[in-house]
Amino acid sequence: MARAHQPASRPPNAPPGDAAILEASIATMAEHGYHGTSVRDIALRAGLSPAALYHHFPSKQAVLAMIMERGIEALLARTREALESAGDDPVDRLRALVEVQVLFHLEDQRGTLLGTSELRALEEPVRTPHLAKRHAQQRMFDEVVARGVETGAFRTPLPGEASRAIVVMCTGVASWFSPQGPASREEMVRRYQRLALDMVDAVDPGPWDGDPA
């Protein structure tokens, strides 16, 4: 399994003031949306005055950009690390990708949901380079699935669609998973790995020891 990481919105090296503002921003925007949240709302939740918040971030948009950028940068780094450790087998590589994608989106569910739902609120000049990073994340899935088809490990006639469906599936787990539910995060990884391999019609997906109940 992937190593435990801090949620992307609260990195361990963030200055205390920044970390508190980011945490308060995620909590408030998750409840009210980006446009329904004011700088005053964030400041009050962080235990600061609006004027004090402006010492850390010049605007609410800058806060959102920081949340979005730290999230995608952390996800890209972890995905690349997982692929480097996975070897050449397309099945192992797809398992590694799914593990990272699921665990990442379950570590800070409010933060990752915010990163998805409020993408439309992200403005230039941050928006275009941020979208390019998201596309780079998708391409890692695309390349693994395409390689699996080329080598005969996967038999799907729709590799592009399967790859995008896997990413959407793994990202969406943040919208419904409950730590109090019957399945652990690790069990969700195993289930989604099997679902992903089924989606690409893996010739040899390996043993399945999960409990679908």
Break the fold down into its secondary structure elements and pairings.
Blueprint: H1 16-32, H2 39-46, H3 50-53, H4 60-86, H5 90-107, H6 109-117, H7 127-151, H8 159-172, H9 185-199
Main sheet summary: none
Shape, per Cα inertia axes: elongated
Overall average pLDDT: 90
Q: Which class do the helix and strand fractions yield?
A: mainly alpha
Task: Give the DSSP E fraction (strand runs of 2 or more residues).
Answer: under 5%
Q: How many E-type strands?
A: 0
What's the tally of helices? 9
Order of helix and strand elements from N to C terminus: HHHHHHHHH
Determine the fraction of residues in helical runs and give it as a percent range: 55-70%
Radius of gyration: 19 Å
What is the terminal separation in angstroms?
22 Å
Keywords: DNA-binding
Pfam family, one: TetR_N
Domain HTH tetR-type: 15-75
Protein name: TetR/AcrR family transcriptional regulator
